[in-house]
Description:
single chain, alpha/beta, Beta Polymerase, domain 2, 5-stranded mixed beta sheet, two-stranded parallel sheet, 7 strands, 20% strand, globular
Amino acid sequence: MSPNADAPAEGAPTLTDESAGLLAALQAELGDAIVEHANAFGDVVVRVKPDAWRRTAQVCKEKLGCDYLSFVAGIDWMPAPLVADEGSGDTSAPVQPRDQTYGAAGSAGRYQAFAVVESTKQKATRAILKTDVGDDLRVESWVPVYAGADWHEREAWEMYGFVFDGHPSLRHIYLPAEFEGHPLRKDYPLLAREVKPWPGLVDVEPMPGGDADEEATPAASE
């Protein structure tokens, strides 16, 4: 575990008392299953081993009182492929990274699943959980613990290709059954951006009475 995982960046808030308590409880319950943890603007981010992903959900719900699942989603840390050439007019801001970097609590590779759980009874009690997703793209389903994970995991399956073991019925939500590919992967081709770099150069007509009109209209005294 990173020795400075709890140390916030200069000027950033420290862990709240609630977050510090959650971290201590998770460490007591999960032990070596915790790979790394970090402070993200006062919230605790805990990364656990893939084989402890569902157990983490059980601990959060049954031991820590986090009865509400806010969401489950995927992450693709791969840098977006460079589509626009330098000097082409791509005005993306901030500039997209060229190297693969990872967020709070790190990652072992390109893909991760993450979730946010909260307590509806204890104010400001919230934990952000992460786990690495390997090349087989398989991850334990949280549906047996949080029924509300059903829809979220279906979306992550559809958009990232993650297979949630134990999910009752992975099926499409947004896309037709014959659709090929996973649109939220960084290497999925976004043809609109290839035609015109995002956010693109917008052709804006001049406002009435602007400089363009003054140049085109003879002066009234002429």
